[in-house]
């Protein structure tokens, strides 16, 4: 069923707070045939200029998001830098406007819980942009798990090779703990949500190690005086600059780790591991799911339109076998961002904002990804001490299970067989 079939005849009036790196995703709203971007806010003149370029000359543009409350909005996208998610999201939830918050939900557990509580008290619809749940290769992995391809899930591993990490995360606000808590959260919350989703549970105890191993020694730092105002990552990205030590104009402050490794025990007994490195020559994610009757993993992730596949092994032999027992090709669109996942994400939010109902993403799961990442970051910065992940208020969990049910009653996804 199309988005148009699921929402009222009147176009939804949608706003955007923060017209920056992810604003292209919001531009998909005007292509849906069901909604229009009518209002935007950004304190940066470049953001306000981009709003008119992306959404049309008729869009109302403000320098402060509070002024958008007068624009009769049905829904709003909060696409600000991560540390600025909380206040605008709280503002629009209190006003009864359905809210899309870009992932990660926030950079602290307290702010996550405040947003979920605000949605609970106001009964306003809250949605989090974990687009990887719509990525074709990961959806195929979910289907194989549901079909029993590896039996009962007992472990999930993820390796994230962030080949453009220096350009993407160490030349702007991402490089500072004050803005992200750390890249294990900022980048890792996306992967941890998928790990939880594939495993059917949430992390409850974690331990981690990490280091600022490469970019911390790079002396080529920008200064506050030489950083051009309004610049964004594509303005400086050059894939030919290699190795990472050759990068120039790193952020004046770099205090986040560029390599992190964590282990987790989930509430259903599944064990998980996550490794993230920002100075590899390749850029992709590899997930491995191990069950009591086999294992599966992806080769390629299809994010940039490249073909990917999921291989399954469940016959015992000695040595590595490139000829898997089952190999499932996954072809992602090269015409849409993130293999079509962003389009599916936007369409789901528009339908949810208008009519409610189940969603593939989950605010509860988004909070749990942040909570696991915060605990892991605490562990790696305190001598790898094991850290427990605080559970969410059961009343909040029940609220979202009833009003925004995912396949798992707790919002995590499939339950291990």
TrEMBL record:
InterPro entries: Gfo/Idh/MocA-like_OxRdtase_N, Gfo/Idh/MocA_oxidoreduct, GFO_IDH_MocA-like_dom, NAD(P)-bd_dom_sf
Cited SUPFAM superfamilies: Glyceraldehyde-3-phosphate dehydrogenase-like, C-terminal domain (SSF55347), NAD(P)-binding Rossmann-fold domains (SSF51735)
GFO/IDH/MocA-like oxidoreductase domain mapped to chain residues: 139-297
Record-annotated Gfo/Idh/MocA-like oxidoreductase N-terminal domain positions: 12-130
Pfam families: GFO_IDH_MocA (PF01408), GFO_IDH_MocA_C3 (PF22725)
GO terms, molecular function: nucleotide binding
Full protein name: Oxidoreductase
């Amino acid at each position: 069923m199309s988005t148009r079939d699921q929402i009222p005849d009147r176009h939804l009036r949608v706003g955007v707070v923060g017209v920056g790196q992810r604003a292209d995703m919001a531009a998909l709203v005007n292509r849906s045939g069901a909604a229009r971007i009518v209002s935007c806010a950004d304190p940066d003149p470049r953001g306000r200029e981009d709003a008119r370029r992306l959404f049309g000359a008729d869009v109302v543009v403000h320098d402060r998001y509070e002024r958008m409350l007068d624009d009769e909005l049905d829904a709003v996208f909060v696409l600000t830098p991560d540390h600025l998610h909380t206040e605008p999201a709280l503002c629009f939830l209190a006003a009864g406007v359905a809210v899309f918050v870009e992932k990660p939900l926030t950079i602290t557990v307290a702010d996550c819980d405040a947003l979920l509580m605000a949605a609970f008290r106001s009964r306003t619809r809250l949605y989090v942009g974990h687009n990887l749940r719509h990525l074709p290769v990961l959806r195929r992995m979910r289907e194989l798990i549901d079909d029993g391809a590896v039996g009962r899930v007992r472990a999930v591993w993820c390796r994230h090779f962030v080949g453009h990490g220096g350009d993407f995360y160490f030349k702007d606000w991402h490089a500072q703990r004050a803005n992200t808590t750390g890249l294990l959260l900022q980048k890792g919350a996306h992967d941890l949500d998928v790990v939880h989703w594939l495993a059917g549970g949430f992390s409850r105890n974690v331990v981690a190690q990490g280091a600022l191993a490469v970019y911390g020694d790079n002396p080529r730092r920008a200064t506050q005086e030489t950083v051009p105002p309004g610049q964004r990552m594509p303005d400086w990205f050059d894939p030919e600059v290699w190795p990472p030590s050759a990068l120039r104009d790193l952020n004046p402050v770099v205090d986040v780790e560029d390599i992190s490794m964590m282990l987790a025990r989930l509430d259903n007994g599944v064990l998980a591991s996550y490794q993230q490195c920002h100075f590899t020559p390749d850029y992709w994610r590899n997930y491995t799911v191990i069950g009591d009757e086999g294992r599966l993993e992806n080769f390629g992730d299809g994010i940039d339109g490249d073909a990917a596949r999921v291989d399954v092994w469940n016959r015992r032999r000695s040595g590595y076998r490139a000829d898997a027992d089952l190999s499932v090709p996954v072809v992602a669109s090269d015409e849409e961002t993130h293999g079509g996942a962003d389009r599916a994400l936007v369409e789901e939010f528009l339908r949810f904002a208008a009519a409610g109902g189940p969603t593939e993403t989950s605010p509860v799961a988004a909070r749990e990804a942040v909570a696991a990442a915060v605990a892991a970051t605490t562990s790696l910065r305190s001598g790898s001490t094991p850290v427990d992940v605080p559970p969410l208020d059961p009343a909040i969990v029940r609220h979202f299970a009833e009003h925004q049910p995912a396949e798992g009653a707790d919002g995590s996804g499939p339950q291990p067989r």
